Amino acid sequence: MRLMWALLSVSDKRGLVPFAEGLLGLGFRLLATGGTYKTLVEAGLPVTYISDFTGFPEVLEGRVKTLHPKVHAGLLARPDQEEELKALGLERIGVLAVNLYPFRETVARGAPFAEALEQIDIGGPAMLRAAAKNHLAVLPVCDPEDYPRVLEALTEGPTPEFRKELARKAFAHTAAYDAAIAEWLAGEKFPPEKFLVLRRESPLRYGENPHQEAALYRVLGEEGPLLQAEVLQGKAMSFNNYLDAEAAWNLVSEFGEPACVAIKHQNPCGVALGQDPLEAYRKAYEADPVSIFGGIVAFNREVDGATAEAMREVFLEVVLAPGYTEEALEVLSRKKNLRLLKVPFPAQGPYLDLRRLRGGVLLQDADTEDPSEPKVVTRKAPSEEEWADLLFAWKVVKHVRSNAIVVAKGGQTLGIGVGQTNRYAAAKHALKTAKEKAQGAVLASDAFFPFDDVVRLAGEFGIAAIIQPGGSVRDEDSIRAADELGLAMVFTGVRHFRH
């Protein structure tokens, strides 16, 4: 009786040689293509070249090498078809290890069309799908991380559940591959068919509420700061933790200066700049010492021991930063339930924002850019200090749920009006929170003023300057009110709705 074949044809050579050695030890004969064959020969392993197996040479510059009846019959023959297989003089392939040409990576580096086209694998997906369909007789292996498990399963005898798991992974692998090719050929941001390939990172204890099931998924081919973050301590992140942490990191990444952001329910409750993380944290805390309780805090600088000591005074769910000193880690380790994340890079650059509907989705460019060109529309212009605060408040208001108003001064938020059903109510909330501190402060609005009531309310609280998109048919009413009250007002020409 001749030993069963294991066919290896991989672009990713990680773990290939040890896997092949393990297969040989289990009594398999090795069969390989091109670069895989070369790697195994160089490792001194006995291996048969695919053309010697099929009796047909590789043709068309390697485009046709495994598309042959001897290969596909060996992969597709069911256990009850053994006699037919033998009568045809064909042999069974019991293990197939295939990972596909690096198409996605080729496109990502901006390769020319012709080069990318050549990186569309044909034989690999065909073999993988054949083996996955016939997984009760063949083990389809597409992930090098599975090699040790495959060898262990072959030693003990693969269970039906393990075979089914490998088949599922193989079909998911080829489906994701085809999706990437289809989108590339469409060449559109919003093609007729949009494929989002999601890979589960981890199940979550529950969703927004305990009666909702949830899981965290990664979008294949994309990178995100939180998905790359290292959890240094604390319980596993929850559904709500991820939402709030994303909001915090997106906002803190807006600033070049040392900054601290406190988030509650995806909205900022305190945002501040400082000479160092400690000053930024203290100012962010002072902005709203009530709402920060149980919130999430993000820094865009390494957290030091002094800042960590200051944070010990309040209950926080999560802290995010690009790094922590040893002293900071020692201090924060005493807060056992605090989740501590080391985030490797800022949240920058465009991406597509997805909102779910029943039976559909909405896709849009995420509001990451700010193509505004602020211009003064009142007789009075902002002072240098007011300009700095206006631009600071404008960055913050972009991350606040509409209707949104931010009052700020000295690189610190003083009051934030969040998610109100009318702009006047949002302004009233923000200004009443700021109280007497609003005197000489600035006010930012995510959208224009349909009436002059917000300007007049701002004047009552002593606001010195306002920044807003402009574009209302009643802009002149607001400008006239600002001039009457001696306020400076700036139009950006850009709005930042967040629904």
TrEMBL record:
Xref: SUPFAM superfamilies: Cytidine deaminase-like, Methylglyoxal synthase-like
Pathway: Purine metabolism; IMP biosynthesis via de novo pathway; 5-formamido-1-(5-phospho-D-ribosyl)imidazole-4-carboxamide from 5-amino-1-(5-phospho-D-ribosyl)imidazole-4-carboxamide (10-formyl THF route): step 1/1; Purine metabolism; IMP biosynthesis via de novo pathway; IMP from 5-formamido-1-(5-phospho-D-ribosyl)imidazole-4-carboxamide: step 1/1
UniProtKB keywords: Hydrolase, Multifunctional enzyme, Purine biosynthesis, Transferase
Recorded superkingdom: Bacteria
EC number: 2.1.2.3, 3.5.4.10
Domain MGS-like stretches: 1-142
Catalytic activity: (6R)-10-formyltetrahydrofolate + 5-amino-1-(5-phospho-beta-D-ribosyl)imidazole-4-carboxamide = 5-formamido-1-(5-phospho-D-ribosyl)imidazole-4-carboxamide + (6S)-5,6,7,8-tetrahydrofolate; IMP + H2O = 5-formamido-1-(5-phospho-D-ribosyl)imidazole-4-carboxamide
GO terms assigned for molecular function: IMP cyclohydrolase activity; phosphoribosylaminoimidazolecarboxamide formyltransferase activity
Pfam families, per database record: AICARFT_IMPCHas, MGS
HAMAP family registered for this protein in UniProt: PurH
Family: Belongs to the PurH family.
Domain description: The IMP cyclohydrolase activity resides in the N-terminal region.
Protein name: Bifunctional purine biosynthesis protein PurH
Gene it is expressed from: purH
